[in-house]
Amino acid sequence: MPSRLLCAVVAAAVVLAPIGASPRGPVSAAAPAPVAIIGDSIIAGNLGYILPALDARGVPRRVGDALSSRKTSIAWFDGRRTVTSGIDAVRSLRARGAAPQLWVIELGTNDSFDISNCRCSDPVAFAGQRIDALRTELGPDARVLWVNVRTSSAGALAYNDALARRAGPNFVVADWKAHSAGQTSWFVDAVHPTVRGARELAAFLADAILAMPPPQPLPDLCIHGDVAAASPLGSLSGEVTAAASARRCRFG
Length: 252
Hints:
The chain has eleven helices and seven strands. Helix content is 38%, strand content 11%.
């Protein structure tokens, strides 16, 4: 992604642990965090606006990792340094003790060129492979809020299409593209916000985080009623029956 300001985005290339203080105070590297934010330069260059907005709205404590030029699941060498991927960021945060209840992902802009030039029969599937690689790293039960890509290149549209196809109760797409459509004063280029745009992005993220649905309940795997009457377990001893029942009941 082209840098908005070399000194503020490339030189900073922010890696955060934690990325800010909330009304509850700063987060130590070992403390569980309800929200983890992983992003590229759109986040890294605008933390001064994003973090106070999240604080003001009561978003709980956060940890994160934002880095200029980051792609979703592919680390790459940009001629000066190795740019870690979203997958690398997840692993790094977990290694530092983060256990978020919500993952906020702002990635995809830097994948767009690769997708546009993939020479593949299905760019949406190609984009989906990168998204799914990061989702696999997050785990099947992760709650995810994923900010889509603002630009309208073929690769960006394919990426957004792939995101939309994966939307569900625990995978919510924050439609920054639609929210910012036509707002030319919010941006210094196609993607990097002006001061006003950064404030709008901060408010957008706060609204999206607070609007996330609660975690979906896991299925009830318990055997209810009389175990002995309900199954052949009744022929077992009481000790074995209890053990077998516990295996059938994840949280009983």
